[in-house]
Amino acid sequence: MPTAAKLIGGLFFAALAWFTSGLIIPLLPEGTPTKLFAEGNLLIGLVAGWTVMGPRAGEGLRTAIGGGLTTAASMVFWALLVYSIMQMVKLSMRKSYDDPFQAVVGVFEIALDYGQLIVVPSVIGTLVVGGILGGWLTELAARRWP
Fold first, then answer.
1. pTM of this structure
2. Is the sign of the CA dihedral 69, 70, 72, 73 positive or negative?
3. What residues does each domain of the chain span?
């Protein structure tokens, strides 16, 4: 059921994902296609804010901060998974894998490589501060518009 907290959480974390995408694009290897990168992450942030943060709102500030950090972490997890699967499919179309098991293992290897690229203070700091702020704002929305 839609609530103000879910809406605020979804919108805030969508904005956070879009902003963080701008920080990540320069870190990607040369030639990496980034045409819809920010928009894809925006969608992931919207869904994460709505489904992860929104339902946790209204349970107190401590829970809101924890929920915001959890939502930021879930955005990173889902983005890494989605982009790793997309890259694996591209590689499998080029016959880079001998069997399906290698392709599944390849998803995790690609996710690990992408994860290592984004472990920089600017990205981590933005996600942590943004997660805390997003949890707090979602909590405020739940209190104001129950």
1. 0.91
2. positive
3. 4-144
> CA quadruple 49, 38, 27, 81: dihedral positive or negative?
positive
pLDDT in tens, 50-65: 999 999 998 999 999 9
DSSP class per residue in 70-137: HHHHHHHHHHHHHHHHHHHHHHHHTT--SSHHHHHHHHHHHHHHHHHHH-SHHHHHHHHHHHHHHHHH
- What percent of the chain clears pLDDT 90, i.e. is strictly above it? 86
**If we measure between CA atoms, which residue out of 64, 68, 27, 19 comes closest to residue 48?**
68
Tokens at 66, concatenated: 């924890």
pLDDT score at 29:
87
